[in-house]
Amino acid sequence: MAKRTQPVIVWFRRDLRIADHAALLEAAQGGKPVIPLYIWNKPDEARWSHRGVAKAWQACNIIALDQALQAQYGSRLIVRKGDAAAELMMVAAQTKASAIYFNMVYEPQELAQEERVSRAASKQGIELKQYPGNLLTAPGTILTRNSQPYKVFTPFYRQVLRTYRHAPPQPAPEKLPTPTTSPTSIDVAILLKELPAEHQAIAQRWPAGEAAAAKTLRTFVTSKLARYGADHDYVAMASTSVLSPYLECGAISARQIWDAVERHLSSYPPGREESAAQFERQLIWREFSYHTLLARPELPDQPYHERFAAFPWVRDDDLLECWQAGLTGYPLVDAAMRQLSAEGWMPGRARMVAASFFVKHLMQSWVDGEQWFWERLIDADLACNAFNWQWVAGSGADAAPYFRVFNPVLQGRKFDPTGEYVRRHVPELTDVPNRYLHNPWEAPEPVLTACGVTLGKHYPPPIVEHQAARERALSAYRNLDKSPSDM
DNA sequence: TTTTGAGTTGTTCGA
DNA sequence: GTCGAACAACTCAAA
For the structural domain made of A306-482, what CATH number should be given? Predict the structure, then answer.
């Protein structure tokens, strides 16, 4: 086979899109036949590989990518199952591919895998080209004056704003040369059907793929962004971007989002930029999560601040199950947890309240909460999930001060003032008047009876009493700070 | 090297 | 009902 006809493999991973895909564009422009390849791993291959709803979502987006490749280029996505390095080498050998191109994934186990692929490729004389992953800033490039990773968000944020040079997203390749023969491929629909039916059902509620992602972005920028600052905390409103599921599987890139916001901003009248800045700040929190994870790869399992290793978490499976099921007796917490189970998603405010309740009121370890979210969130992202759980628990980088204990009743009144969110997800409370919707145990007996609610029968009484739980948490945190096991 | 100012997202209490 | 202060120092980052 003449050398110039040797194909190039584009290894797709967390970048299930065609536009703004550096590896694909470079491969396409090289003029050689391109083999788009995805390698499906076993769900339990590693502690933090996707296994829950996000795994099913991944499959849906692989299917969408295959369809897009077919429609646009007449090309098919090859899907293989197994170890990435072994499969890549096998496909390369079968197709006589000369090179493998891919975009990086900034997670410890993914980087380790890239390392194994790199070693295997160089042994076989296969060229490897890697491109930046789905962040605005490459990890390791945002450092303090002492060349250390930032531990506090605000200076990190300012440094990103000072140094980030935005480049417009790259277009999709115009043409994708296809190889004359293709290696064998697995039908992803079958892989999807092997997953738990419940996970499939949740993932399939969401429109998958790059086009759906682009539509979500357009809707956000044109009709929500201007009010993002004012509205994003109201849990019943569809005021957040809901881009996280697409960002996670790479159906959209962070750069595409940043670009859309910036371009829309230029059409704003002066003084309206505040909302966009707040939204962009959220994107930079995501950057900070990734930078922190790579500086401290143990972040998903170990407290960032070591003294928290001694924290007296209570392990109680009954409490864990009540929380997971949305049966804590605190309506906002229960609404959030039930939305998670039904939809695989919650607005950020709801995540915060539910997580804070789990860690502070129930004194359960953040790792148990993190694992539940990992399994249930359609947008389960290792860096963000680990970082934010530690933030809530107080053990993380630039974490919430320990005395900040959310009061689930006040949070409910503040961010679900009409009760629409609670009523949507906790229908047994539909007829409870607003005054008692977030604290039904304080309603007079006749009021509850009139709306058909008996506590303990239709809806649980509070699993813990707020005041007592708060005091318990505060004293545990106070003792921790005093303990000599520090550092 | 030392000093200085600052620090996502809250709640409770008392004036 | 509204408002400001206390909550707890401590660590981080920059000058």
Answer: 1.10.579.10
